[in-house]
Amino acid sequence: MIKKSKRGAAPRLDDSRPTKAAAPPAGKRASSSAGDVEVPSYDGPKKTAKMPSHKARRTGSTKAALKPGAVRRPGSGSGDVVLGDQIARSTRGRAKPAAGREQYIRMRIRVHNDRLSVIDSHLVDGPLAQTQVFSGTNAYEVVVGDRLLHAEALPDVGVQRSFVNPAGPPEQHGHYFTDRPIYEFMARVPAHEVSRGMIGKIAVRLYRLKDEARTDRLGSAPLARQFERQIRQIAELVGLPASVLPEAIEERGGRTPSV
């Protein structure tokens, strides 16, 4: 029976292999058996209980101390800083759009009992594209007199669509549409067409589409003249509120910049 001991077994010594030479006494150089090995002739730093000071470590020239009052700070200018082709945006106020930039006004219009009212408006950066195809259930136009400013299709506006129930009775297997008494849509108009002297003459008209209206090039006449057989007018708003003016939208922070 072998007794196990908690102490580890002593390492075995091999007398056939060379052993490490003993360290030389302090202050003396270690001798080398090989003639091509250079042994340093100095001793390393001695360990002490006191930490050496930083002054003792400095061996070269040091940087001159900075004199008080010699620091020059940049002046605080009130204007924008010109950076080549760029202009730094001022933090004191809202940046104004560059001159000549195309913008349009996006109006949120509510329909209640076939009466239109503007409930919100935003100024958007960018050009306003004009469609040539009007499909779906409705369309709108923005005109001033007999001149068309902008028109767009409104598919399924004011209509609530129900979902199909395949597991239900036969009357629930198809889509059903319910007209809403109150609904909203977005109308757009070029911003340069909206001024204080013109807002009372601008009209927004809502149409019901009998059939798809399509043209290769939309003219400047109202939609009722260009598509007399395809559309029918159901509501009209003559005159826009002063809140849709570009300067009024800028003042209340309702501008949507381009990305």
Number of E-state strands: 14
> What is the residue-mean pLDDT, rounded to a whole number?
78
Principal-axes shape call = elongated
How do the helices and strands follow one another from N- to C-terminus?
Answer: HEEEEEEEEEEEEHEHE
- Major sheet, described briefly? 4 strands, mixed
Low-pLDDT sequence parts: 87-96
Structural class: mainly beta
Radius of gyration: 43 Å
Helical residue percent?
under 10%
DSSP summary: helix tally: 3
Span between N and C termini? 87 Å
Q: What fraction strand? A: 25-35%
Strand order of the largest sheet: 10-3-4-14
Task: Give your account of this protein's structure.
The N and C termini lie far apart (87 Å). Mean pLDDT is 78; it is low at 87-96. This protein has helices spanning 54-57, 223-226, 246-251; strands at residues 82-83, 86-87, 103-112, 115-125, 133-134, 138-144, 147-154, 159-161, 177-179, 182-190, 202-209, 213-214, 231-238, 255-256. It is mainly beta and 259 residues long. The protein has a 4-stranded mixed β-sheet. The protein has a 4-stranded antiparallel β-sheet with strand order 7-6-11-13, with no helix packed on it. A two-stranded antiparallel ribbon has the order 1-2.
List the helices and strands and how they pair.
Layout: H1 54-57, E1 82-83, E2 86-87, E3 103-112, E4 115-125, E5 133-134, E6 138-144, E7 147-154, E8 159-161, E9 177-179, E10 182-190, E11 202-209, E12 213-214, H2 223-226, E13 231-238, H3 246-251, E14 255-256
Parallel strand pairs: 4-14
Antiparallel strand pairs: 1-2, 3-4, 3-10, 5-12, 6-7, 6-11, 8-9, 11-13
